[in-house]
Structure formats: structure tokens, C-alpha cells
Amino acid sequence: RRPELEWTHIFKRVSLMEDPELGVASVLNQIEKEGNKLTKWELCRVVKELRKFKKFKLAFEQISTLAGNLEPSYFVWEVLFTMAIVGLGLLLFALFIGNMQNFLQSLGRRRLEMSL
């Protein structure tokens, strides 16, 4: 009896294949030649994960092309300024979320007081 592989091992080998032009079948044939057993459930799971991976990969490629002609800066003050802007943005966002929570809680209190 041949040992069974987990679907994560199959997915890793398929997603990290060296030559994508060969296709998934070449990787699956190689796995079977190594003496491993492939079940229908594992293959279905790998296909589902590959579809999800493809969507994320395409979305990432779209985002990365938005700033495709830019080059990273190694000027210290520019990097520090950028880090400060990002930190300030996160701080303001956290304060905004906190204020929204307080506002929504006060609406609930007012509704409770009005019903009494």
C-alpha cells in the first residue's frame, strides 16, 4: 500500500513548480512516480486552493503595477518622513474607530433612556 500525502504538500509542490509551462499534471505524475497515493478529496482541495491563490496572485499583480516605474528611496529623511506619515495615519484611524464606538454606545444609551 502506498503512503498518502496531505493536500498541503501537494499544493506546495504545485504552487512552487519550477516551470509553469509544463502544467500541474507533470507535478502530479511525478508525485505518483515517487510512490505516493493521490485521493480525489486531496486533488479537489488542491484545485480549490489553486483557484484562490490565482485570484490573490492576479490582485497582487494589479496592485504592484500601479507603482511599477517607481524606485525605492534610500534617503534617510524621506524614509523617516514616510514612516511618520504612516504611523500618524494609523494613530488617527485608531482614534476614529474609538470615537465611533463611543458614539454608537451613546446612541444605545439614549435609546434605552427614551424607552424608560
Helix-strand layout with pairing:
Blueprint: H1 7-15, H2 24-33, H3 40-65, H4 76-115
Helix pairs in contact: 1-3
What does this structure look like?
By secondary structure, the protein is mainly alpha-helical. The chain folds into 2 domains: 7-65, no CATH class; 72-116. Helix content is 73%, strand content 0%. It has helices spanning 7-15, 24-33, 40-65, 76-115.
Based on secondary structure, the structural category is mainly alpha
How many domains make up the 3D coordinates? 2
Q: Which series of helices and strands comes N to C?
A: HHHH
Mean pLDDT: 81
**How much strand content do the residues show?**
under 5%
State the end-to-end distance: 73 Å
Shape: flat
Radius of gyration, Cα only, in angstroms?
Answer: 26 Å
Helical residue percent band: over 70%
> Mind summarizing the main beta sheet?
none
Low-pLDDT segments, ≥5 res: none
Total DSSP E strands = 0
Count helical runs. Answer: 4
Transmembrane segments: 74-97
GO cellular component, one term: membrane
GO biological process, one term: monoatomic ion transmembrane transport
Keywords: Ion channel, Ion transport, Membrane, Transmembrane, Transmembrane helix, Transport
